[in-house]
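Lecture notes, unit on protein representations.

Consider one protein chain, 274 amino acids long.
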Amino acid sequence: MRHEYYSYTRDELVGNNPKLPVIIMEDNAAVFKSMAVEMAEEIKAHNERGEKTVFICPVGPVGQYPFFVEIVNKERISLKNVWFINMDEYLDDEKKWIPETHPLSFRGFMNREVYGKIDEELLMPKEQRIFPDPENVTYIPEIIEKLGGVDICFGGIGINGHVAFNEADSSMSGEEFLNQKTRVLEVTKETRTANAIGDFGGALEDMPHYCVTIGIYEIAHARKIRLGCFRNWHRAVVRRVAYGEPTADFPVSLLTNHPDINLKITEFVAALEG
């Protein structure tokens, strides 16, 4: 069966009553800078009120981080009362973290490109830079509850609709799927293929088979959700999330009724050609 929404034009994409706000921006830089600015403004507002800030953060997309680092260092924004909870990490065949030196390591990326580039006097303590641990999967739900919840979850969308590594599962109801918390799981063939193309020069045979991911439960319960899409295959993904039916077979569709969610995309993604 062919789905009509895949042929929606740019104007139809935003004008046919999508299930979540779709914001079209000029290019990748505009999307990433917008995410970085929202991160910084949220932190500044909380700092002014003497409140902590808790984010769920992705490594994919990553284009927001250079802008964020620049803003923090230039404006001297203290991150001392900020918690970054990373979404996920690849695991080896023994289901342990891949080394930080591995080119796909999300821990390695964050330490090199984010934490390692923020001025030391502004940086949050190491214990506030959190990654899901395959040997302690209950820690993230527990720390989120202790901190009083997540202020904003930032993320992208995978080719099968996954957010973090919450992979599609047609055997589950939407309600069952949304109850899943941080856990270890196998990465689907679709995700391994798409990530090999996008992040690893097509080296599919060397892509990790396992991951640890924050749960869709933790994402769905964040006070705000901000998604960004910019790749060529996102043209279909954003149309499905905006107009398809909610299903565990396309996990992001289960988030569209969140009270404060939006999806920022580029003009390239909004277009059907070019």
